Every structure is written in structure tokens, then in C-alpha cells.
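> forwarded from #structure-qc
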């Protein structure tokens, strides 16, 4: 029971760090940059990486714009599902718990923006090249998915190696060549194998 309680604290800690970091950075961007205004202190990085105040009414990475209310409902459903799945994976490997904690933090980070009456949209601010603008919450969601994929792949590979090693350990005993197998001689065989040359008939009485 104590172990499971510790795992729930692990969920709160990881998802809490994601939420706090995400919200702090979004607040800094909102209060210092106008919508679509960009900033980058290192000029040589500006063609590749920029900080921008971007309004996202869709989902992660700016997809499906203009359906904020729908994704608010979906976000609530996702949060509930993650909590239910987390409860069922307490006895699984640790990567399950870390991945779900990251995804919970990411889902809540964006959900807070949507239900904020002063916003009503998700604040994205990381712009790399021509890639869609994203935020820390999006990174946590994608990172959790990658951890799940890599973790399941590694577990599957380990299981295959264990099966292979088990098959190598099972060996069939060698059978001696049939030509070298000899049957033990029995007393009957010894009697039957006696030479006919040494056998003499007894003399009959009255004969000379």
C-alpha cells in the first residue's frame, strides 16, 4: 500500500513540474510579447529557433484550429482516462508511470489555458524552423508517447531474448550409434551359442 501511495506522489510530482513550468513560461510570453511577436536574444539562432506569442485554438502543434470548445471536452476526457489507466498500471514497469505522468501534465497544462476565462486558447511559443509552434505541454505529451513506444519495444526485445536463451539451454541427449549398441549376453544365449563340434551322442548299450 505504501508503495502504491508513493507512485501516486510520483504522478503528482512529475505532472506538477510539467504544469508549473508550462504555465510560468506561457505567462512570461503573454506579458512580454504581443500576439505573433517574435523574440530571440541570439541573432544567429533566429533563423532556426524563435520565441513567439502564438494563439492556438486547436490541438497540439496548431492542428484543427477553431474548435476550442470541442478540445476542452476532449481534454477533460483524456485527463480522466489517463488517471484510470494509471491506476491499472501501478504494477507495470516504471516507464508506464513516467509516460502517463508526463502526458497528464501536458494535457492539464493546455486544458488550463482553454478554461482560463482571460484566454480561451492555448499559448504556444516555441518555433523551430518551419515546424508548427508548440509549448512545454506539447513536449510532455509527445515525450510520454515516445517513452511508451521505446519502453514497450525494449520489453518485447528482452522477452524475445529470454525465450531464445531458454531454447538454447534445452538440449536433447545424444543417442549412441546403433552400431555400437550391444545387447548383454544371457545364460540362454551362452548355452545356445555352444559349438556343435564338441557334441557327442551317448553310447547305446549292447552295441560294440
Amino acid at each position: 500500500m505504501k508503495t502504491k501511495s508513493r507512485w501516486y506522489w510520483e504522478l503528482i510530482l512529475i505532472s506538477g513540474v510539467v504544469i508549473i513550468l508550462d504555465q510560468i513560461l506561457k505567462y512570461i510570453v503573454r506579458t512580454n510579447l504581443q500576439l505573433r511577436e517574435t523574440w530571440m536574444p541570439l541573432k544567429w539562432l533566429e533563423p532556426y529557433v524563435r520565441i513567439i506569442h502564438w494563439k492556438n485554438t486547436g490541438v497540439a502543434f496548431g492542428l484543427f484550429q477553431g474548435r476550442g470548445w470541442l478540445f476542452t471536452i476532449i481534454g477533460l476526457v483524456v485527463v480522466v482516462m489517463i488517471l484510470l489507466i494509471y491506476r491499472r498500471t501501478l504494477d507495470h514497469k516504471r516507464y508506464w508511470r513516467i509516460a502517463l505522468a508526463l502526458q497528464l501534465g501536458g494535457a492539464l497544462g493546455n486544458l488550463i489555458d482553454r478554461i482560463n476565462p482571460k484566454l480561451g486558447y492555448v499559448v504556444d511559443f516555441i518555433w523551430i524552423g518551419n515546424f508548427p509552434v508548440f509549448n512545454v505541454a506539447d513536449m510532455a505529451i509527445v515525450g510520454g508517447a515516445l517513452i511508451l513506444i521505446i519502453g514497450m519495444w525494449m520489453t518485447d526485445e528482452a522477452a524475445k531474448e529470454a525465450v531464445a536463451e531458454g531454447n538454447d539451454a534445452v538440449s536433447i541427449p545424444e543417442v549412441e550409434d546403433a552400431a555400437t549398441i550391444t545387447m548383454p549376453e544371457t545364460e540362454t544365449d551362452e548355452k545356445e551359442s555352444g559349438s556343435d563340434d564338441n557334441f557327442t551322442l551317448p553310447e547305446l548299450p549292447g552295441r560294440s
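QC bot note: Residues 2-162 form one domain. The longest helix spans residues 136-169.
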